[in-house]
Amino acid sequence: MRFLTVFFAATCLFGQAIPEKAWTALDQGIHDTNPLKRMQAVNAMAVLHPEARVTALLESALDDKVSGVREAACVVLGQVKARTSIPKLQAALKDKVNEVVFAAAKALYGMGDEFGRAVMEAILLGEQSDASGFVSSSVRDIKLKLHDPKQVLLLGAESGAGFLVPGGGAIGPVGEGLMKDKQASGQTVAALLLAADKTPESLDALRRALAEKNWTVRAAAARAVAMRDAATLYDDVAMLLADKKEEVQYSAAASLIRLKQPAGAWEGPVLEGAPSGAR
Predict the structure, then answer these.
(1) What is the pTM of this model?
(2) Which of 20, 77, 210, 240 has the highest CB neighbour count under 10 A?
């Protein structure tokens, strides 16, 4: 009887420790000395809802010395609809790197921000005159930095295209990085696409994919579990916190955090004039 009591207490303690282990993994990833790992940790957070702790970590990446990390942070903040981060994204429009400026503008536009909309229109039109007086001097400065608006538009559209899923949705940066790795396969794509499937068969397939030899499949499966809020696979995903591949650890950590986020707690007011995709 005493053994069962101790075992139960140890199990509960371990269960309580998992969320903090997940947060620690992401925090260490975003502050790693390797910029690639920092970018991987940021991209993994695309499955999360924008609660304060999430946005604080992502906003810290907006100050990264590597432009790729800053760009990823802008993309993910837009993906998770972090409306409290709008002022930070507006500040990112002053970045010296074109791709970061575009990513910030795209994120702002996706959340219905007028500043972001004006910048996107200015880039698309490639005009020197501003569409409105709302951001007259700022947009003019941005257009001067974007010497080839069409090229920047194509680059931004390509990087933010994401993976289409049944029903017309898109996984977006959830798959960022995974498909660029030479080890990525059809199984990796399949795991990402199963995020939109709700059948018991696909859930079982994801469970098995979490133990696949190919690390990109394990990472994709962990992200898919998060996207479909498959809480029954929580313990299976938790095992990946000890994975030998850091990107799998980051994907698992973000998935575990999302599966414990309280439903609806992150939802803010809809911005008036926001495009339908932001509602």
Answers:
(1) 0.76
(2) 77
Asked whether the CA dihedral 224, 226, 229, 232 is positive or negative, the reply is positive
Q: What is the pLDDT of residues 34-69, one digit of tens each?
A: 999 999 999 999 999 999 999 999 999 999 999 999
Name the amino acid, one letter, at 164.
Answer: L
Q: Give the CATH number of domain 50-160; options: 1.10.1530.10, 1.20.1740.10, 1.20.1250.10, 1.25.10.10.
A: 1.25.10.10
Nearest in space to 41 (alpha carbons), one of 177, 172, 164: 177
Percent helix / strand / coil, the chain, rounded to 5: 70, 0, 30
Superfamily, domain 162-264: Leucine-rich Repeat Variant (1.25.10.10)
Inter-residue contact 232 to 207 (CB < 8 Å): no
Which residue matches tokens 């030479």?
Answer: 182
